[in-house]
Write a sequence for this structure.
C-alpha cells in the first residue's frame, strides 16, 4: 500500500477526477440504481459504468490488487469516494459480496478460493446471497438444521432457508449448513454453492413495504464442491460471526455513510408544517423531538469518525459495531416516523399521482426501515452482545 | 478517547493517578461533612495548581502551559470521576478564558499569572435568576457605577475577581470587578451538590474603561462556550465513573441465587448507558477540539456536547441509584453524590432544553 503524502494525494485526486469525467455516463448523474431490483435490469449506461469501475478495482478500493481490488490506502479510497460524490456518481460495485462475503473470504479463504471468488465481486459480475436464517433459526442462528452430507469430493445439501435477500437474482450463495448433529456451534460449516442448479428453488416473499426483495430457499439434494468449503469442516461458526460483524458495520454506516437520502428532515418540516415569526418550526412539540434526533444523529456520526481516527484508519469491525448498529438504526427509524408525521396525510400515500416521489418514498422507507432492527442480529441480540462481550455481564444460570 | 499528543497523555495520566491517590470520593465526602466554607479543599487545590493544572489554557508568558482546551478537558474528566471539588472549572477555565480572549495587556498581567498559580480565583458572574439566560441582563453600568444581582456564581465565595456581564450604553459588556471592591456583597448558597456557589450583589461599584474587557456580547458567548465544553468534560468523567461503579455492583450483588447483572432487564439498560456514554464522549471531545482549532462551528458543537452529556449524566445518575436498590438511597453510598452533581451540572451554563433550542436556532429552524 503506497503511503501518499499530501501532494501525492492531490496528484492522485487529479487523476481520479479526469478518469471519472471521461468514464461516467452523464445520464446516470445523481442516480443510484443500486437497489437489488434495478441492479438486476441494468441499462447499457449502467453496464458501461460497472465495467469501467470494476476494471479499476475502485468499487472495492482498499481490497488487494492481486484479487482485483483497487489496492489503495484508506486516504486514497476517500479521494475516490470524494471524487465520485463530486461528480454525483454512484459506486456500481455493491451487494452482499462487497459488504460482507468478500471481506470475510479475504480473511478466511484459501488462496484458490480468493482467486476464484474475489475478482468477480470486484468487477460486479456475480451477485451473492446469504443463506443463514431458517424458519427455526433466527436470532438463535446456531440452531440451524439444513444438513450437508459428505460425499467425498462434494456435499449434498437438504433443508430450507428463509428471508434470503436477493436469492431470486443471486448467482451464488454463502451458506451455513449442519455437518455434525451432535454439537450445536461446533457442528456448523460455511459452504459456497451456485444458485443455478436443480436442487435450489426460490420463492419470493412480499414485504409490508410492497416489494419482495427476499425469498424462501428450498434446498433439495443441492450440491456444493468440497473446494468451496470455507475454513475447516465444522469450523463455520467463527467465520459466520465475523461475517455478521461486517454486515452490522455495513448496515449502520459505522463505516461512514448513514444517509437517509433526500432532503434534510428539518427542511421537510419547515415546508409541510410551517414556521413561526422567528423562523422556528411551528409545531413546538415536533420541533423538540426533531432537534433531539438531529443532534443524536450528529453525535452518532462523530462517534463513527472517532472510531476511525482511533483505529488510525485500520478500523476492522469489532464488538463496537453492535453499539453502532443499535444507536444508528433506532435514530433512522425515529427519523422515518417523523418524516411521516411531518407529511401528514400526504405521507400515507401508497401509489398514484396524488403523491410526490418523495412522499411515496417516505412511506416505503418507513416500512422497510422496520427491518433494520431485526436483520443483521436484532437490537435485542445486539444488546446481549454489548452486555456480555463488552461489559462482561454473566449469563443467567438456571433460576432457583 | 481522542488521539492524544505525548504531553496530553502525560497530563491525563498524572491527573488520573493524583485523583485516585489524593482525591477519591471519600475526600469529597470529608469536605462536605466538614461544611467547608468555600466548597472545596484549599490544600488539594494548591496541589492541583502546583502541578500546573490551573494554567493549562493560559499562555506561557503568563506562567501557563498553553496546552489548550482538550488538554484541560482531560484533567476535568479525571477530577470529575471522583467529584473533586475545586475552582478548576470556574477559574482556570471560565474566568481565565474571558481574560485571555478579551483582556488588555494590563488586565492579563494583573490576573493571568495569579490564576495560573492558583493564587487568584476568577469566576463568571452572568446569570441573574434560576435559569441560565445570558442574553437577559438587568445589571447596568451608568455613570461609572455597576449595579445588579448575579445568581449561582460558581466558587462565588472564593473568588477574588468576578467577570460580570452588564449593559452599558445599550450593549452587553463584560467587566472585571475585584471581590473586595466597595459595594460587592456575597451570600453563600448551600446547594444539594455541596459545591461552592454564591449570590453576589453589586451596589454602585465603581468601574472604569480599564475594567472593561473587549468584545461585548460576542466575547460573553465565546467565553460561555468554553465553560460549557469544560463542564461537559467534567460531567463525562463523573458519568463514566458512576456507570463503572454501577457495573461493578451488577457483577457482585446476588439476588435470586445469581448476580443481578445476569438479568436481561438490567443488562440491556447497561448496554444503553454504555452506548450513550460513547456518543457523549464523541460530542465532548469534538467540542473541545473545535475550540482548540478556533473552528467556525464551535457554538453548535458545544451545544451538542452540553445537551448530549446532560441527557447521559441524567440517565446514568438515575440508573446508579435505581440499580443499587435500597443501598443507593443511603447517604453512606456515593450514588446520591453523583445524582446531585448531575442535576447541578446540567443546570450550569444552560440545561439540555436551552442547548437544544440554541442548536436549532443556529441551524435555522
Ligand atoms: C428485510 C430482511 C432481510 C433479511 N435478509 C436475510 C438474508 O439475506 N439472509 C439471512 O440469512 N437472513 C436474512 N434475514 C433474517 C434475519 O437475520 C432474521 O430475521 C433475524 O436474525 C431474526 O430472526 P427471526 O426473524 O427468526 O426472529 P426471532 O429470532 O424469532 O426473534 C423474534 C423477537 O424475539 C427477540 N429475541 C430473540 N432472541 C432473544 C434473546 N435472546 N433476548 C431477547 N430478545 C430476543 C428478537 O429480538 C425479536 O424481537 C432478513 C430479515 C429481514 C427482515
Ligand atoms: C426508603 C426505603 C424504605 C424502605 N422501607 C422498608 C420497610 O419498611 N420494610 C422492609 O422490609 N424493607 C424496606 N425497604 C427495603 C426495600 O424493600 C428494598 O430496598 C427492595 O426490596 C430492594 O431490595 P435491595 O435494596 O436489596 O435491592 P436488590 O434486590 O439488590 O436490587 C438491586 C437492583 O437489582 C434489580 N433487580 C433485582 N432482582 C431483579 C430481577 N430478578 N430482575 C431484574 N432486576 C432485578 C432491582 O430492581 C434493583 O434495581 C425500604 C427501602 C427504601 C429505599
Amino acid at each position: 500500500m503506497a503511503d501518499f503524502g499530501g501532494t501525492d494525494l492531490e496528484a492522485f485526486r487529479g487523476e481520479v477526477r479526469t478518469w471519472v469525467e471521461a468514464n461516467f455516463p452523464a445520464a446516470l448523474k445523481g442516480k443510484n440504481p443500486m437497489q437489488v431490483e434495478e441492479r438486476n435490469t441494468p441499462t447499457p449506461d449502467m453496464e458501461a459504468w460497472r465495467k469501467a469501475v470494476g476494471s479499476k478495482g475502485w468499487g472495492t478500493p482498499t481490497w488487494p490488487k492481486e484479487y482485483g481490488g483497487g489496492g489503495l490506502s484508506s486516504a486514497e479510497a476517500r479521494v475516490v469516494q470524494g471524487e465520485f460524490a463530486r461528480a454525483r456518481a454512484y459506486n456500481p460495485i455493491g451487494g452482499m459480496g462487497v459488504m460482507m462475503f468478500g471481506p470475510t473470504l479475504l480473511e478466511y479463504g484459501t488462496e484458490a478460493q480468493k482467486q476464484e471468488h474475489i475478482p468477480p465481486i470486484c468487477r460486479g459480475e456475480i451477485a451473492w446471497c446469504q443463506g443463514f436464517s431458517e424458519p427455526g433459526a433466527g436470532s438463535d442462528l446456531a440452531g440451524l438444521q439444513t444438513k450437508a452430507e459428505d460425499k467425498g469430493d462434494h456435499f449434498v445439501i437438504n433443508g430450507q432457508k428463509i428471508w434470503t435477500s436477493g436469492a431470486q437474482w443471486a448467482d451464488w450463495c454463502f451458506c451455513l449448513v449442519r455437518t455434525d448433529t451432535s454439537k450445536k456451534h461446533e457442528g456448523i460449516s460455511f459452504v459456497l454453492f451456485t444458485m443455478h442448479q436443480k436442487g435450489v428453488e426460490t420463492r419470493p416473499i412480499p414485504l409490508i413495504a410492497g416489494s419482495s426483495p427476499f425469498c424462501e430457499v428450498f434446498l433439495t439434494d443441492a450440491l456444493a464442491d468440497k473446494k468451496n468449503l470455507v475454513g475447516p469442516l465444522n469450523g463455520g461458526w467463527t467465520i459466520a460471526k465475523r461475517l455478521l460483524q461486517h454486515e452490522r458495520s455495513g448496515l449502520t454506516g459505522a463505516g461512514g455513510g448513514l444517509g437517509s437520502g433526500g432532503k434534510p428532515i428539518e427542511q421537510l418540516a419547515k415546508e409541510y408544517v410551517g414556521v413561526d415569526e422567528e423562523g422556528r418550526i411551528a409545531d413546538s412539540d415536533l420541533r423538540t423531538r426533531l432537534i433531539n434526533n438531529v443532534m443524536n444523529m450528529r453525535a452518532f456520526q462523530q462517534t463513527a469518525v472517532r472510531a476511525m481516527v482511533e483505529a488510525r484508519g485500520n478500523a476492522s469491525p469489532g464488538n463496537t459495531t453492535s453499539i453502532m448498529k443499535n444507536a444508528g438504526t433506532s435514530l433512522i427509524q425515529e427519523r422515518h416516523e417523523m418524516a411521516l408525521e411531518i407529511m401528514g396525510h400526504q405521507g400515507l400515500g401508497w401509489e398514484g399521482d396524488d403523491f410526490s416521489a418523495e412522499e411515496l418514498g417516505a412511506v416505503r422507507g418507513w416500512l422497510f426501515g422496520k427491518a433494520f432492527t431485526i436483520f443483521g442480529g436484532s437490537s435485542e441480540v445486539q444488546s446481549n452482545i454489548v452486555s456480555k462481550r463488552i461489559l462482561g455481564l454473566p449469563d443467567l444460570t438456571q433460576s432457583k | 478517547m481522542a488521539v492524544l499528543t505525548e504531553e496530553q497523555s502525560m497530563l491525563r495520566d498524572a491527573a488520573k493517578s493524583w485523583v485516585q491517590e489524593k482525591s477519591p470520593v471519600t475526600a469529597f465526602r470529608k469536605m462536605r461533612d466538614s461544611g467547608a466554607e468555600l466548597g472545596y479543599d484549599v490544600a488539594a487545590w494548591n496541589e492541583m495548581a502546583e502541578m500546573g493544572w490551573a494554567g493549562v489554557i493560559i499562555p506561557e508568558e503568563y506562567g501557563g502551559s498553553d496546552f489548550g482546551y482538550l488538554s484541560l478537558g482531560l484533567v476535568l474528566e479525571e477530577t470529575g470521576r471522583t467529584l473533586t471539588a475545586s475552582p478548576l472549572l470556574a477559574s482556570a477555565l471560565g474566568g481565565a478564558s474571558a481574560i485571555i480572549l478579551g483582556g488588555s495587556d494590563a488586565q492579563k498581567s494583573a490576573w493571568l499569572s495569579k490564576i495560573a498559580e492558583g493564587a487568584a480565583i476568577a469566576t463568571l458572574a452572568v446569570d441573574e435568576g434560576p435559569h441560565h439566560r445570558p442574553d437577559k441582563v438587568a445589571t447596568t453600568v451608568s455613570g461609572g457605577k455597576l449595579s445588579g444581582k448575579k445568581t449561582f456564581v460558581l466558587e462565588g465565595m472564593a473568588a477574588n475577581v468576578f467577570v460580570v456581564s452588564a449593559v452599558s450604553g445599550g450593549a452587553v459588556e463584560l467587566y472585571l470587578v475585584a471581590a473586595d471592591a466597595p459595594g460587592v456583597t456575597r451570600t453563600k448558597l448551600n446547594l444539594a451538590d455541596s459545591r461552592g456557589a454564591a449570590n453576589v450583589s453589586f451596589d454602585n461599584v465603581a468601574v472604569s474603561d480599564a475594567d472593561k474587557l473587549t468584545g461585548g456580547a460576542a466575547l460573553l458567548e465565546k467565553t460561555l462556550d468554553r465553560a460549557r465544553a469544560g463542564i461537559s468534560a467534567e460531567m463525562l468523567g463523573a458519568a463514566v465513573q458512576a456507570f463503572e461503579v454501577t457495573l461493578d455492583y451488577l457483577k457482585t450483588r446476588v439476588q435470586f441465587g445469581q448476580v443481578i447483572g445476569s438479568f436481561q432487564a438490567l443488562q440491556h439498560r447497561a448496554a444503553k448507558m454504555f452506548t450513550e456514554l460513547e456518543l457523549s464522549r464523541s460530542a465532548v471531545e469534538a467540542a473541545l477540539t473545535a475550540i482548540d482549532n478556533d473552528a467556525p462551528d464551535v457554538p453548535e458543537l458545544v451545544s451538542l456536547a452540553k445537551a448530549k452529556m446532560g441527557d447521559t449524566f441524567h440517565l446514568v445518575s438515575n440508573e446508579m441509584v435505581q440499580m443499587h436498590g435500597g443501598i443507593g438511597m443511603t447517604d453512606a453510598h456515593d450514588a446520591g453524590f453523583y445524582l446531585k452533581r448531575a442535576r447541578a451540572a446540567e443546570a450550569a451554563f444552560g440545561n439540555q432544553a436551552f442547548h437544544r433550542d440554541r442548536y436549532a436556532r443556529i441551524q435555522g429552524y
